[in-house]
Amino acid sequence: MDKEDADAIEALATGAFSLFQQSPRVAFASIAALAGSIIVAALITRRLKRKWPIRSRIRILIDYLSTVVLTIIFILALMQIFRGTLANTLVFVMGGALGSFLVVRVVGAVVELLFKPHDPFRSILRVGSVLFWFALFVYLFGQWNPAIKGFFEAEIPIGDSRISAQAIFNILFLGAIILIVTIWISETVQRYLHRRSGLQPNLALALDRIISVTMWVVAALLIISLAGINLTALAAFGGALGIGLGLGFQKLAASYISGLILLFERSVRVGDNLVTDRISGKVTEMTIRYTTIHTTDGLDVLISNDTLISSTIFNETLSDSNIRLECPVAVASSADLDAARRIFLDAVQKQPRVLKQPPPRIFTATIENKSIKLLARFWISDPSNGRIEIISDINEMILQEFKNKGIDLA
């Protein structure tokens, strides 16, 4: 900011504050006009927002720009109507504040339309634009005030160096730009890997996480470098901190490393049917830290990835989805064994879920004094649809046919 601009802003600010001493009625009328304009603009914006979906482009523009644009229009209209009262330096300062706020909101709207950030980044962006405007307004219109000017010029000692409040403001501004660009690149890479790259979902997720972490580390180093913090001292501190965090979060680190191993090896994939010693279900989601399994009981179970690595897990669909099931039936030793075998085999073959190849087979598993145990072995290709259901259907059909043929169960 050159000297002429600074003098002009100082003259406006001084005139605005002197208006309270010279014509307090005019000053309060100006403030009332601004407050009324903001309230009416906010009410109109609220009605407009109801007509558009939340994430639509028009809704985003309304969220960012409608209130401030309508407020400016109302203020200009009131200045024309009440030219003698509202044409004063206080209103001009208010107009400057609204104009700078409009510029900041336009930038925020463009960022959200281009980058399409999700929560919480979307909320951070909207709140951050307001805070940035407030800091910018205080910086521009507060230079004439010795207290505010002294605040921006004050230096804070950090180790062997000193940093001013104005430098902190600049760092926050540049840091916000770096974070916005990082978020945009990260989400762009994520969309490309998952939708257009043609990679397997596991590999795409692993690359997405690695690239995302790398970018955030680079962004953090850039912000630290802009702040003028000694990276050598930070490296020593980071080493000690890393040892402490490593000891305290080794379980979490193991889950993350195990997640990368699972994603690259593809030994577990979304859609696979997993069986452990306690649960059985379908993998619905995989992240770096945990895997979600939707069980046959309708529950979503979160299993840490290091548990999947260190435990014995049966993946029923790793190579293919075909699995073999067994269904035992015990008949009386006096029963017609050939008829019982035919009925048993016919009941299995009539099930639509039973595969034709390999063909189902009936075995005489055990023979005891008063019973003979028959065992059916057959294959299905959809274990995710349940196992007990098909065995129940077979047993019900056998029970009915055995009653019709006079075959007794043991």
Order of helices and strands: HHHHHHHEEHHHHEEEEHEEHEEH
Structural class: alpha+beta
Would you count the extended β strands for me? 10
How are the strands of the largest sheet arranged?
Answer: 6-5-4-3-7
DSSP strand content: 5-15%
Distance between the termini: 99 Å
Strands, helices and their partners?
Layout: H1 3-22, H2 24-49, H3 57-81, H4 83-86, H5 89-115, H6 121-141, H7 146-153, E1 155-158, E2 161-164, H8 165-196, H9 201-226, H10 231-248, H11 250-265, E3 273-275, E4 280-286, E5 290-295, E6 300-304, H12 305-310, E7 314-315, E8 323-332, H13 337-349, E9 361-367, E10 371-380, H14 388-405
Antiparallel strand pairs: 1-2, 3-4, 3-7, 4-5, 5-6, 8-10, 9-10
Overview of the molecule:
With 410 residues, the protein is α+β, with helices and mostly antiparallel strands. The protein folds into four domains: 3-153, no CATH class; 173-248, no CATH class; 258-315, SH3 type barrels (Roll), CATH 2.30.30.60; 323-405, Alpha-Beta Plaits. Helix content is 63%, strand content 14%. It has 14 helices and ten strands. The chain has helices at 3-22, 24-49, 57-81, 83-86, 89-115, 121-141, 146-153, 165-196, 201-226, 231-248, 250-265, 305-310, 337-349, 388-405, and strands spanning 155-158, 161-164, 273-275, 280-286, 290-295, 300-304, 314-315, 323-332, 361-367, 371-380. The strands form three sheets. The protein has a five-stranded antiparallel β-sheet. The longest helix is centred in the middle third of the chain and has 32 residues, at 165-196. The chain is elongated, with a radius of gyration of 36 Å. The protein starts with a helix and ends in a 5-residue tail after the last helix. The relative contact order is 0.05. The model has no long low-confidence stretch (mean pLDDT 76). Keywords: Cell membrane, Membrane, Transmembrane, Transmembrane helix. Residues 253-315 form the Mechanosensitive ion channel MscS domain.
